[in-house]
Amino acid sequence: MAEAAEFTSPGGCPVSPQAAAFDAFEGPYQVDPADALRWSRDQEPVFYSPKLGYWVVSRYDDIKAVFRDNILFSPCNALEKVTPFSDEAMAVLKSYDYAMNRTMVNEDEPAHMERRRALMEHFIPANLEPRQEMVRRLTREKMDAFIDDGRADLVARMLYEVPLTVALEFLGVPPDDQETLKRFSVAHTVNTWGRPTPEQQVEVAHSVGKFWRYAGEVLDKMRAEPDGPGWMHYAIRRNAEIPEVVTDSYLHSMMMAIIVAAHETTALASTNMFKLLLTHRDAWADICADPSLIPNAVEESLRYAGSIVAWRRQTTAPATVGGVDLPEGAKLMIVMASANRDTRQFENADSFDIYRDSAIDHLSFGYGSHQCMGKNIARMEMRIFLEEMSRRLPHLRLSEQEFSYLPNTSFRGPEALWVEWDPSRNPERAAPALRDRQLHFPVGAPQRKDIARPVRVAALRQEAEGVLGVTLEDTRGRPLPDWSAGAHVELCLDGYERKYSLCGRDGRYEVAILREEAGRGGSRHFHEALREGAELKLRGPSNLFKLDETAPHHVLVAGGIGITPILAMADRLKALGKPYELHYAGRSRASMAFLDRLQADHGAALRLYPKSEGARADLAAIVDALPEGARLHVCGPERMISALEDRTRHLPEGTLRFEHFAADAPALDPAVERPFEVELADSGFSVAVPADTTLLEALRVAGVDLPSDCCEGLCGSCEVSVLDGAVDHRDKVLTRAERAANRRMMACCSRARDGKRLRLA
Ligand code: FES
Q1: How far apart are CA 574 and CA 598, in angstroms?
Q2: What is the mean pLDDT of residues 743-754?
Q3: Collapsed DSSP state (helix, strand, coil) of residue 266
Q4: For the segment 322-376, what is each residue's pLDDT rounded down to a tens digit?
Q5: Could you write out the three-class secondary structure of 202-230?
Q6: What is the pLDDT of residues 648-684, one digit of tens each?
Q7: Helix axis angle, 595-602 to 563-576, nearest 10°
Q8: Digit-coded pLDDT (tens) for 308-323
Q9: How far is the CA of 732 from the centre of ligand 1 (A)?
Q10: Which pLDDT does position 518 carry in this prediction?
Q11: Closest atom of ligand 1 to CA, residue 544
Q12: Closest by Cα among 156, 376, 183 to 262
């Protein structure tokens, strides 16, 4: 504690020992930034780091909120030097007329969006599609050069040069001395995000100064041929057309920044991906056997070990983040690597799981109006690298080696990646045509519907009248991923996809399926088609109904088949030794699932209300008897949840947590629905939403990455902000008041009222 007392935040508050010890340039953060901030995610999600001089933000929701509000949290400091330079180093920079100014990355509104809109066109998926061919050709050429060697540093032989060549081609910048550019890029990273010593600062300043001049010279050359190809030529033409939006100084700064941004991040992310996959051999083997897994494996790699681990923002007014009050001018370091492993957001977050259907929700590309414009170029390259390597060298393995990283706050990836293989086993020696085989993955984010893991029915049993108990196991005998109480999975069989809560243990999953005669046929089909030994696909687990384990007391209420997640919660609370009570209502004992197990495991806490015996749960009495600070978790029919919502209105927010039955989402009926159009204020684009398409689907086709989970209006993850236009709300997330305010909507289910136009932030 003596150490903590030595430091205070700018507001004068004492700094905790862990916060005082936090060092972004060495120690655990450099080894594994997500792991290094585990304590922060758990105990102090926003803390002041005296060594860094920044407020560090580590939780997913907080970071997303910061990204979302780029007015209150200005990006103006994103390219500031984390370590201020000495006077001598500054003098060196000055001698090169170094005048790095605003770029797309650190520009405030309204200039940022004006420029982004003016320059966005080249980045949309349809315009990137033709570039796949070039990436593949370059990748094959590089692989041809080392495929018979049996050993290679992938960074030196492929993963640096291909992204650089692709980037230069995309920009229209003439290919130049790649080694020099690499040196410049490293200098730029150290200059902006590193902690160089005073001697290094002078050296770095010279390299950065030369890079600045080089960028200027390239720009001048390109100006001489204004009709040239590529994005920078396009930007030069826009500069001539709208000089007040795309200014001269902006072009020079962009030129330097984008040469780095366009390739360095992809090279590092690709290196991280191969390191991860070759370490997780099961995942590598699965990809070799089924290349359709590649797009999501790339996304999961970006989640688990993205190349941009942290970014910066600065408050423009007093703000509150994660419950911590920050003054105007507070500098924030938001650590996306930590957000990406936040268990509040990702189930089983510390596991690398290429079947994770929520991997796309990672924040490695940022979020909101400043989201990385080049994200789809990076995805495209990483997919092709992975496809070519896994097809041509499935026997690849990681060599014994020590990994080294460039110490800095924000960019992460090994400087070399040595791999080895037995060339005599190269598949194309026996089958030469294999070299030229290829798949096509459309540019853009992977579709959630394409992601599912194979499972097998290990056991079936009758849990109650009309309730089928199903135990599922991995088809390859591996343990299925861990999950937390309240989680669910989605079963996929013969075109039917339905969500069921989990209640099993020990690496296998248990679900209970109520046969709903009046439903759309999913539960009937599962009842009739499932057999022991049958194989099917499964998505998840995901958890939209988390148990608040911090509460001093829990009251659990289940109606009918809603007992499944409630049983898992009771199991968990018992294991934690926390006080709880469990109220379970149903038609009759015969129709109530898990009664034996409940009696055996939770008998003392259990109250049963079989309607056939005249028993009724007195919800008012349950609410009135809630101890202070207790949490009430309920899963059951709509009327039960509404009644509890009414009864708990006077209690502190968060007291009641509920999950609706994952009711069959009604399919869009194009005969009834109306098409509409949305305008995206961020980009100025208009997106047409046809009558048979959800807003979420239409936005994704347009290249907008939007998280989603339930796709039924239950979870709130696909929320978008509404600036203008009336919404036909169809979710179960927003309150009546929130609907009336008309400022938010769920893109997976809600639409424009009367087919009119909406304007979204
Ligand atoms: Fe869950 Fe839209 S994805 S509410």
Answers
A1: 12
A2: 91
A3: helix
A4: 999 999 999 999 999 999 999 999 999 999 999 998 899 999 999 887 888 889 9
A5: HHHHHHHHHHHHHHHHHHHHHHCCCCCCC
A6: 988 888 899 888 765 445 567 878 899 999 998 766 6
A7: 20
A8: 999 999 999 999 999 9
A9: 9
A10: 76
A11: 1
A12: 376
Place of tokens 């499932």: 530
**In CATH, what is the architecture of 87-308+364-420?**
Orthogonal Bundle (1.10)
Return all residues near 439 (Cβ < 8 A) that are at least 6 apart: 291, 292, 294, 387
Q: Which atom of ligand 1 is nearest to the CA of 718?
A: 2
- Test site for ligand 1: of 708, 727, 738, 744, most ligand atoms within 8 A of the Cβ: 708
CATH 3.40.50.80 intervals, the chain: 554-660
C-beta of 46 in contact with ligand 1 (< 6 A): no
Extract the tokens encoding 145.
């050069």
Where, residue-wise, is CATH 2.40.30.10 in the chain? 450-542
| CATH number belonging to domain 554-660 | 3.40.50.80
662 pocket-lining for ligand 1 (C-beta < 6 Å): no
> What's the pLDDT score for residue 1?
39
How remote is the CA of residue 441 from the centroid of ligand 1, in Å? Answer: 25
Q: How far is the CA of 717 from the centre of ligand 1 (A)?
A: 5
What pLDDT band is residue 3 in, cutting at 50, 70 and 90?
very low
Residues of the chain with CATH 3.10.20.30: 676-760
Ligand 1: distance of its center to the CA of 68 in Å? 18
DSSP letters of 151-218?
Answer: EEEHIIIIITHHHHHHHHHHHTPPP--HHHHHHHHHHHHHHHHS---HHHHHHHHHHHHHHHHHHHHH
As a whole number of Å, the end-to-end CA separation of the chain is 46
- Tell me, using a 6 A CB cutoff, whether residue 713 lines ligand 1: yes
Stretch 585-590: mean pLDDT: 96
Look at ligand 1, atom 4, and give the residue with the nearest C-alpha. Answer: 713
Is the CB of residue 409 below 6 angstroms from any atom belonging to ligand 1?
Answer: no
Mean per-residue pLDDT over the chain, rounded: 90
Inter-CA distances, 115 with 44, 104, 168, 243, 743, Å: 37, 8, 21, 11, 26
Cβ–ligand 1 distance for 296 under 6 Å, the answer: no
Q: Which CATH class is domain 450-542?
A: mainly beta
Contact 656, 634 (CB under 8 A): yes
Judged against a pLDDT cut of 60, whether residue 635 lies above it is answered with yes
User: Quick one: pLDDT at residue 4?
Assistant: 42
Query: Side chain identity at 299, as an amino acid letter?
Result: E
Distance 629 CA to ligand 1 centre (A): 29
Alpha carbons 6 and 649: distance in angstroms, whole number: 45
Query: Residue 325, by phi and psi: left (phi above 0), alpha (psi -120 to 50) or beta?
Result: beta
Ligand 1 pocket, 746 CB below 6 A?
Answer: yes
Contact 29, 22 (CB under 8 A): yes
Considering the domain delimited by 676-760, tell me its CATH architecture: Roll (3.10)
Residue intervals of the chain classified under CATH 1.10.630.10 are 87-308+364-420
Gap from CA of 299 to ligand 1 centroid (Å): 20
